[in-house]
Amino acid sequence: MRPLSVSLTPLLPSFMRNKLFRYLSISRDAESFRDIHAAVESDIEFKGSRLWILIFAIVLASVGLNTNSTAVIIGAMLISPLMGPINGVGYSIATYDFPLLRRSLKHLSFAVAASLVTSTLYFAISPVSSAYSELLARTSPTIYDVLIALFGGLAGTVSITTKLKGNVVPGVAIATALMPPLCTAGYGLATGQFGFFFGAFYLFTINAVFIGLSTVIFSQFMRFPIRSDIAEAQKTRINRWITAVMIVTLVPSIYFGFVLVKKERFIENADRFVRSVQVFRGEYLLRNDIDADKRRITLIYAGRSLTDESKSILRKRAEEFGLADAAISFEQGISFADITGDLSEKEKVQAQLRKLSLTIQESGKIRDSLQRRAFFGRTLLRELRTVFPPVEACLFAEPYRFSAEDADNPRKLAYVVVSLSSDLGTQDREKMKALLRTRLGNDTLRVVFEQGSELLPDNRDKNR
User: Fold this and answer.
1) Could you tell me the CA-to-CA distances from 278 to 114, 195, 272, 283, 305 in Å, in that order?
2) Among 37, 166, 211, 336, which residue has the least CB neighbours within 10 Å?
3) Which domain holds residue 85?
4) Are 456 and 424 in contact (CB under 8 A)?
5) 462 pLDDT band (50/70/90 cuts)?
6) CB distance 448 to 461 below 8 Å
7) DSSP letter for each residue of 242-280
8) Domain co-membership, 347 together with 215
9) Residue 336 in contact with residue 367, Cβ under 8 Å?
């Protein structure tokens, strides 16, 4: 397989071509083929300490899913050794090393079985059986998971085959998330919810197949030497099998991705519609329920019961928001008697008091949300100590930064100050930063480390 940049050569002058090749080339960073083969071989084994690490990571991920703790799940993904045999499968297919392929498949199957057995046993004895968001997120894979697995696998393969290891492998472990789907599948088996099992195991299959495929693609791109004598017809047959497996894995994810897009569009349109009918003919919308799976919207109004004419008008208004096929149902929240056709003064006062009560309740919810945000540092402290025991204190703040150029539009920042009882080392600090940025969904998060009352040296370089 020729590099993609070859197709650009007729379009570029020679000096630009050479400069571009120097920037894109990874040959100067590549390990020798012998070292790469040895590294792949050593990473596929699951016995002894590696097996115990796998089991501990499974239990840790299961606890994280059970308690809905993102930080614990990320910690389990960081220590999980599952990528080794998957890379071994891809590498052995690319180099036609059939003994290595059999060993990789054997160890991968054993690792999957061990993960399912351990997670099933954990969830079978766990007193908490609720399916929180972290569990539910692993039951509906889509085409986006394919892209994550493919490009994450490419990044991981580049890391394995070059000298620039860095934090690529931990990052790929977090992005592709091999461990949580297996634990979610174990939850499905333990609770008898086979929809969870099949959805989660399909997500793991997507990750495994496309990480392996990325290894095949990159290994051929790097022209790894073929390690067995093989006829051209057998090569063709193997390539057909790879294509068939890829298509069988890919097609359902495209369908699920299409369904996901339809659901997201329905929810977006429904939210816009609901905002437009908060107050309708003097009646106040108490609550609404949007069910994207059934394409149903339930509106609960306070005041007098809606007439058939009012309901018809609301349904027609929904059509303006692309909800012509949505089922819209109505319920009565607070009902006011209407005997004469006009509300009495007493009833009007009661209605106003109820509306004021609802406003106070909403204000209370906002206040409670702000208080929870103010104490978010305590949540981060608990989660970080699970993975990094030297953490002894944590501060979380979201200040506004005002600039002289545009003081009317401040920029909201996020800071986490971590106090350590002992130095973690550069690698663990980088892992913690990656964990916190993933946990908070903020790539610009500033993380400051301190030990005792002194800032650690790297804060001056990286956090300003």
Assistant:
1) 53, 37, 10, 8, 15
2) 166
3) 31-229
4) no
5) very low
6) no
7) HHHHHHHHHHHHHHHHHHHHHHHHHHHHHHHHHHHTSEE
8) no
9) no
